Amino acid sequence: MALPARLITVVLTTLAALAAAVATSAPAQAEDGFKYWGYYQLTGGQWTAAKKGADSLTPEDGTVEGWHYAVTTTKPDRPPRTDATFQDICADTTAEQGQKRVAVAIDYGTAAEADGGETPPQPEAACAVVPDDANGQQVLESVAQVRVEGGLSCAVNGYPATGCGDPVSDVQIPQNEPAVDFALPAEASGSEQQQSAAADDGGVSWPLLGAGALVVLLAAGAVTLARRRS
Fold first, then answer.
1. Which residues pair with 41 in a beta bridge?
2. Own/partner pairs for 222-229, CB < 8 Å, 24+ apart?
3. What is the mean pLDDT of residues 28-56?
4. Is residue 150 part of a domain?
5. Cα–Cα distances in Å, from 144 out to 27, 63, 86, 107, 178?
6. Total tally of structural domains belonging to the chain
7. Which of 10, 31, 105, 141 has the most crowded Cβ, counting Cβ within 10 A?
8. Res 192 pLDDT > 80
9. Beta bridge partners of 107
10. What number of H helices and E strands is found in the chain?
């Protein structure tokens, strides 16, 4: 005997509701991840995870690259904790023909995620001046010491001291990480450096002083020669 269509609808609706309730009440399964240096690009004011390895991407002049040592899953979502722009990092840095400037933000992560006993260095930024065809890996290596194993960037400036992409169980990803202070490069133009040097010497310009001394010596020599002839 066939069941009425209305009864079938009621049964299916009830089963769907029960399934949804079970799914909602079931505890979320812990997700495993890794602790490694994630690679990011700043585009339109937003950090995005690189779709390729650093040795397969060639950043353009005026771009910002980011590296963050953190625990994350197979879907990286832990970009550097900074909103510094290219101008903030590279300031008045210039590049010669055939070179480009790339700002690099390096975030060593938190103490809670540090390897046993290590203290993360202060996050920092640097302005790389590299050949036009330099890839992301070469950009990083131009401003930092990098330990590479199996094609992976395992340590930046010696951090962490050991390990490389170590697995982590029960990953807890923090949400909306606030920005932190980054050590920005101290940039000074050539004119500013000259002004600073002049101030250190009491405002005296040594090239001018040397020229003045030369004039005095020549004048003295001329007087001596004239006296000898007379």
1. 48, 65
2. none
3. 89
4. yes
5. 43, 18, 18, 12, 25
6. 2
7. 105
8. no
9. 68
10. 5, 8
Tokens 């992560």 correspond to what residue? 109
pLDDT value at residue 216: 40
Is residue 159 within 8 A of residue 117, CB to CB? The reply is no
Average pLDDT value for residue range 84-102: 96
Q: Which residues span the domain enclosing 165?
A: 33-190
19, pLDDT greater than 90: no
The Cα-based distances of 39 to 129, 175, 214 in angstroms read: 19, 19, 58
Residue 61: phi, psi to the nearest 5? Answer: -60, 135
pTM for the structure as a whole: 0.69
Q: Establish if 134 belongs to a structural domain.
A: yes
Is 211 part of a structural domain of the chain? yes
Alpha carbon distance 96, 230 (integer Å): 60
SS3 label, residue 93 = coil
* Same domain assignment for residues 151 and 219: no
Dihedral of alpha carbons 14, 15, 16, 19, sign: positive
Tally of CA atoms within 13 A in the half-sphere of 133 that contains its CB: 0
How many CB atoms sit inside 10 A of residue 169's CB? 8
- The token pair at 80 is 């550097």
- The answer to whether residue 141 sits within a structural domain is yes
